[in-house]
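== Protein entry: sequence and backbone fold ==
=== Local backbone shapes as whole numbers ===
==== Amino acids and backbone structure tokens ====
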Amino acid sequence: MRSAWRTLDPDLLRSIALICGSVAMVGVSYGASAVAAGFPLWLPVLTGALVLAGSSEFLFVGITAAGGNPFAAVAAGLLVNARHVPYGLAVPEVIEPGWRRFLGTHLMNDETVVLALSQPDLVRKRAAYRLCGLGTLIAWPLGAFLGSLGGTQVRDTGAFGLDATFPAVILALILPALRERVTREAALVGAAVALVASVYLPAGLPELLALSGLLIRFVRA
């Protein structure tokens, strides 16, 4: 275990810190939005720790606050989280077997998977996945808590642009992978699908449909 942590060089640690900081800021937006929509302070904090999936949590709050059925909101959140299926197929060796698999699976999200896949060897993949995952597990509920405290004072949380930090960090992480032509084409197809779908579908679902870009890799294989 100690040797694994030693593989985390300063550049990688800075990347993890940047990710956790951006997650916390988006969590502030989530907590403030939830409380401003009428939810109790504890709800975004609890879901932040137990669900740990920002897009599905935003979707649940948005649908319920708009008068939608809570069960339909949960179903929509589960549908959005279906993207974790290909995530699990992409990093099976990163999540260790045994009891660690339960915690490792809970830590699986966009940030941890992207960061782990960007590492050159298995030891670094696992170390980056664990530290980024644990950092996210702390940063997201903490951000939601801070946002909930200020939710009654800040009504228009979108005016601060906090939600832009997350996609900006993810884009920075995947840029090196876009040097490969097939990966670049798959990303462009997925982005186009998500852009068109965002006009007709609620938040979260366009990102799920963007996974259709992965078909490019199978066609070219």
